[in-house]
Design a protein that fits this description.
globular; 3 helices; alpha+beta; single chain; 112 residues
Length: 112
């Protein structure tokens, strides 16, 4: 039995205006996290962040769900296997709470 949660990266959620998501995250937060390798998806965004590591690529995925709220996931790619490991997921995040949720989840990923 697989007890790992399904990644929101594998789910197709509501179409989203990615420019609005980047705006709601805010440039200061992205700079604070050291966001890089920004990816635009039909239903959200993804970016790499945190310190460079030879064995982990930390990423955050933000997607818009059907309720016009966000789902946020933080995890990492384990190298060299490139297996995605979910650290935590948060659902039904309001736009005004999005930066704080992303900040909190990113801190957990750096410690993981």
């Amino acid at each position: 039995m697989n007890d790992k949660p399904q990644s929101i990266g594998e789910k197709q959620l509501a179409d989203a205006d990615t420019d609005v998501i980047w705006q709601q995250l805010g440039r200061p937060l992205l700079m604070e996290l050291g966001a890089r390798d920004l990816v635009y998806m039909d239903d959200g965004v993804m970016f790499r962040f945190g310190p460079n590591s030879p064995v982990k690529l930390r990423k955050i995925i933000v997607k818009l769900n059907g309720s016009d709220l966000y789902e946020v996931e933080v995890g990492y790619l384990q190298l060299p296997s490139y297996e995605w490991n979910v650290i935590e997921q948060v659902s039904d995040v309001y736009a005004d709470s999005l930066p704080e949720v992303v900040r909190r989840l990113s801190a957990k990923a750096v410690d993981a």
